[in-house]
Design a protein that fits this description.
Blueprint lengths: L1 E6 L2 E2 L3 H15 L3 E6 L2 E2 L8 E3 L8 H12 L6 H24 L4 E5 L8 H14 L3 E5 L15 H10 L7 E5 L2 H11 L3 E3 L20 H5 L6 E5 L9 H11 L4 E5 L10 H12 L6 E3 L20 H6 L3 E4 L8 H8 L4 E4 L5 H5 L7 E3 L6 H12 L1 H18 L2 H16 L3
Helix pairs in contact: 1-15, 2-3, 3-4
């Protein structure tokens, strides 16, 4: 079958793009012909036969940036110009979607979060119109929704709030929803009476990940440490909901100069660097400067080496060198970092983050040291220390978790879910 994906940005490291690539890989392995319509192809070459660039659907297009600013951040007194802009600019995108579908004879559409989160208003409206016009079976892959983002998508203009409520999420008789956690599945049913298929984020358990090699053996050297040191890794972005301050407190409580905390992500998404500054203050106050490294400059998702020849490490390299991973998030839509740790056979210390961890991951039986409300008890610290200092125990836990991860979060699981989604989508038309 000819399947067409619409996505604002593909490539790079954001969760939507990463999961989309996995869907595409599995669908192609199932024999489907997959086409991609995107506003940005990041850190990956374009295939002109199957991939189409439409700059208007980029999140960074001037028109989308302008409408986000006027709708949510710096609104005008009169929203009339904005409403007119949304209607006109969405028509441009709508026409390109229709042309793309007809040119490639697409028989099934997949909207990648563009019909769930109003981060590109015109694209969402254009897809809505195209889905109703074409009548094609459609899957909306809904990673997160406006109501999950606090006030980010609340406008002072009631007209815009009504627009968002009407367009996001897409409600159409020929569309079925795929969500990434049980909470979203339940919420869609309660708010809109819409059934959804819960499709967890997955990893490819058929390929090596997090394996030690000559390259990542040099990581301690590049961090200014030695191979005799013990490494805890925080493999996330630096944003407040990641609970990195708990990992720093854990380091302090362990009271061992040989234990180091490596934070691989950057603080680009941290508004005003406020949280990053708080973490630095904490490190300073606890006298942990020699034990904590903010090392985003060394890591790239794919380990690409820049033109200046500096060595870059991948996330797989980070996991390979980790004795354990810290993951004390307070909120996640799913939790890719958890599954990555499982895949790499790395023990993980986790907070019972809402609303996903126990319903969708923890209830599967994974062995972790789990905090509640990020309270770092003496007992939890002792359990973590036992794992850190006992390689045999760490390996036993890691192997057990790997087997569970392969059962619940592998490409085999994704294939089964995609088969179910396609069957249900085709039954709608």
């Amino acid at each position: 079958m000819r399947i067409g994906f619409i996505i604002g940005r593909i490539g790079g490291v954001d969760g939507v793009a990463l999961e989309t690539e996995k869907w595409i890989h599995v669908l192609r392995s199932m024999g489907h012909k997959v086409y991609i319509l995107s506003g940005q192809f990041q850190e990956r070459p374009m295939d002109p036969e199957t991939e189409t660039l439409v700059p208007e659907i980029s999140f960074f297009s001037p028109e989308s940036y302008w409408s986000q600013k006027k709708a949510f951040f710096y609104p005008e007194t009169d929203p009339g110009e904005l409403i007119e802009h949304l209607n006109l600019y969405s028509k441009v995108i709508y026409k390109k979607i229709i042309e793309w579908v007809r040119t490639h004879k697409i028989k099934l559409l997949v909207s990648e979060n563009a019909s769930a989160l109003p981060s590109h208003l015109e694209m969402g409206l254009a897809i809505n119109k195209a889905v109703h016009k074409l009548g094609l079976p459609t899957i909306t892959h809904d990673h997160d929704f406006a109501w999950e983002r606090g006030d980010r998508y609340k406008s002072p203009h009631e007209e815009i709030n009504r627009f968002v409520e009407k367009v996001f999420p897409l409600i159409a008789p020929n569309a079925i929803h795929a969500v990434i956690n049980t909470h979203a599945q339940q919420t869609l049913k309660e708010k809109f009476g819409r059934d959804a298929v819960n499709v967890p984020n997955v990893m490819d358990f058929s390929k090596p990940f997090g394996e030690k090699n000559k390259k990542n053996a040099r990581l301690p050297e590049y961090l200014g440490y030695t191979k005799e040191d013990i490494f805890l890794y925080q493999i996330t972005r630096i944003v407040r909901r990641k609970g990195i301050e708990v990992a720093i407190d854990l380091l302090h409580r362990l009271n061992d100069k040989k234990i180091k905390l490596i934070i691989t992500g950057n603080y680009a998404d941290d508004a005003g660097s406020a949280y990053y500054n708080d973490l630095n203050e904490q490190v300073h106050d606890l006298h942990l400067s020699d034990q904590v490294r903010f090392a985003y400059h060394l890591f790239h998702n794919k380990g690409l080496t820049p033109s200046n020849g500096d060595l870059m490490f991948s996330l797989s390299d980070a996991y390979a060198q980790a004795t354990a991973c810290t993951y004390f998030s307070t909120y996640e839509g799913f939790g890719n970092a958890f599954v990555e740790a499982v895949l790499s056979r790395t023990p993980i210390f986790v907070n019972n983050y809402e609303p996903v961890y126990m319903p969708d991951i923890g209830s599967k039986g994974f062995k972790t040291v789990m905090l509640h409300d990020n309270v770092l008890t003496d007992e939890a610290v002792r359990e973590m220390a036992n794992i850190i200092y006992d390689p045999a125990l760490a390996a036993e836990i890691a192997d057990y978790n790997y087997a569970l991860g392969k059962k619940y979060f592998s490409y085999d699981t994704l294939r089964e879910k995609l088969e179910e989604l396609i069957e249900k989508a085709l039954a709608l038309v």
